[in-house]
Write a structure and sequence with these properties.
The chain is mainly α and 343 residues long. The protein contains 14 helices and 2 strands. It has a two-stranded antiparallel ribbon. A hairpin with a 6-residue loop joins strand 1 and strand 2. Helix 3 packs parallel to helix 8, helix 5 packs across helix 6 and helix 12 packs across helix 13. It is globular and about 65 Å long. It starts with a strand and ends with a helix.
Length: 343
């Protein structure tokens, strides 16, 4: 049995207990993500070496590929990392909230709300007001769906009713989105389909800067709520006995999951399955509480989307396919496997 690592301040008033296996796994995931980031920055239609990429990052004035790295590849890679991390943690929060391993932002309708709102924004000519408003429209749609789920789930938000309500709303939103697309012009439908699939094509720095605050605030908040998720996992009675306010905790977790997933979908489109897959992989690596699962899910979600986008960029050159195609290609069989396992 591996002894935990305990860190204490000089006066002994503050101490931190860290499981060595947890620390090792998270550090390895971080190293893999760093290496994958460098590889993604190095690969593209114009092949470059990692050394050239590092030179462009550190000394852009003396690099011939500085423009490609800084303005084309780096925003796309950073956006993939932020979106994947937000979706991975949002899925973990929802699975802990409803105590259902099949819960994720796309399953309970949050992604569907953002998608319908974005498609309606495009159909009503909102693009003429500026495409920068599209993420805001998608985020508002996700928030409206969340409040709808809260209203229909009833007082106390029982987990079973919460997830069934979300599934029903997701089905209705999917039908409404299809109806809007059928009634739209071909050009609009094509633009909407690319967004609904989920794509990081032509990512800009302003998108990274808009999403970064959501991630930098939301992910630490999720880490702070991790112990409440552990309490909910014990059941409502034990959670109440431990002093946890069930309704307040569930509301906080739901709103945080909506904020993370809604912001991610707003800037990357209707990506699915990342919120489902990442927490399950994290649980396979770490049989620990949610305090360890939050950073692990964030790192795994970032890796999934980073590699899906890399495949979309390189596998069918000169075409650049949406990353959502490859995420769904991985996620759909995994979802079927989970259904079989939990039958």
């Amino acid at each position: 049995m591996t002894l935990p690592l305990v860190l204490r301040t000089a006066n002994g008033r503050v101490s931190l207990r860290i499981d060595r296996r947890t620390l090792t796994v998270i550090l390895l995931l971080a190293l893999v993500l760093a290496g994958s980031t460098l590889a993604s920055l190095s690969l593209g239609s114009q092949a470059t070496t990692p050394t050239e990429v590092l030179e462009a990052l550190l000394f852009p004035g003396r690099s011939d590929i500085a423009l490609i790295v800084h303005e084309v590849r780096l925003p796309r890679v950073l956006l993939a990392i932020l979106v994947g991390a937000c979706l991975g943690v949002a899925g973990l929060l929802l699975q802990g909230l409803v105590r259902n391993p099949l819960a994720s932002p796309d399953v309970i309708g949050i992604t569907g709300g953002a998608s319908l709102s974005a498609v309606c924004f495009l159909a009503l000519g909102g693009a003429a007001l500026g495409e920068g408003l599209l993420p805001l429209a998608a985020l508002l749609g996700a928030l409206l769906v969340a409040f709808g789920i809260l209203a229909l789930a009833g007082r106390g938000m029982p987990p079973t009713r919460l997830v069934l309500t979300g599934i029903g709303i997701a089905a209705a939103l999917g039908a409404a989105t299809t109806l809007v697309l059928v009634l739209s012009t071909d050009a609009l439908a094509m633009q909407a389909y690319v967004w609904l699939t989920g794509s990081l094509y032509a990512a800009q720095w302003n998108e990274v800067l808009w999403l970064a605050p959501w991630a930098l605030v939301g992910l630490p908040l999720a880490l702070g709520l991790a112990r409440r998720l552990d309490a909910l996992a014990l059941g409502d009675d034990l959670a109440l006995g431990l002093g946890t306010s069930i309704s307040v905790t569930r509301l906080s977790l739901l709103l945080l999951a909506v904020a993370l997933s809604g912001a991610a979908v707003a800037f990357a489109g209707g990506l699915s399955f990342i919120g489902l897959i990442a927490p399950h992989i994290a649980r396979r690596l770490l049989a620990r509480g949610h305090t360890a699962l939050v950073p692990a899910s964030a790192l795994i979600g970032a890796l999934i989307l980073l590699y899906a986008d890399l495949i979309g960029r390189l596998a069918f050159l000169p075409r650049d396919l949406p990353a959502g195609i490859f995420v769904a290609g991985i996620g759909a069989p995994f979802f079927i496997y989970l259904l079989y396992r939990w039958r």
